[in-house]
Design brief:
The chain is mainly beta and 168 residues long. The chain is 4% helix and 61% strand.
Length: 168
């Protein structure tokens, strides 16, 4: 899965090659990163690298909202925004037209459903939060419309590209 991550106005390309049992392999701006990720407590992660030598980085998440997360990395506060290119291309100032399905960008778990069948939604409104790779991702409505189907429930595990919500 590929992402565009904006930190301090700079865009970085991040491609997750694999993530299993805490082992992460990713390409960050074309450079391969192999590390272990451990969550010793809520909102706290340890990123452990072994190249060229073992290094441990403490990352704390703070104030997650509207697709933006404040990260405290080794004490320094950094604001990061993760942009999923699949979702960026679907939305515009006018929104998508016709029936639209919101799909899971990667395997994860439903943390919070924010809508129910019959609810009216607006373009860009948050509709569901998925936790994947220890990060919470709020997925937004690609258009103004009505929720006609909610195919998942709170706490449910989902797969990549699984249909979550349908809006008409």
């Amino acid at each position: 899965m590929k992402y565009d991550v904006e930190i301090k106005g700079e865009h970085h390309s991040v491609e997750i090659k694999s993530f299993k049992d805490g082992s992460l392999v990713a390409l960050v701006n074309g450079r391969e990163l192999n590390c272990e990720i451990v969550q010793p407590e809520p909102n706290t992660y340890l990123l452990i690298t072994n190249t060229p030598e073992r290094s441990v980085y403490e990352i704390r998440t703070e104030n997650q909202s509207e697709g933006e997360t404040n990260l405290r990395i080794m004490g320094a506060l950094v604001s990061a925004r993760v942009i999923d290119p699949k979702h960026r291309s679907r939305t515009s100032d006018h929104g998508a037209s016709g029936r639209q399905q919101i799909v899971s960008p990667m395997p994860g778990k439903v943390v919070r459903l924010m809508v129910s069948v019959g609810d009216e939604v607006k373009l860009g409104q948050g509709v569901i939060v998925i936790e994947a790779m220890k990060m919470q991702n709020e997925l937004k409505s690609p258009k103004d419309g009505h929720v006609i189907d909610v195919a998942v429930s709170d706490g449910q595990t989902v797969t990549a590209s699984q249909v979550l919500i349908t809006i008409e």
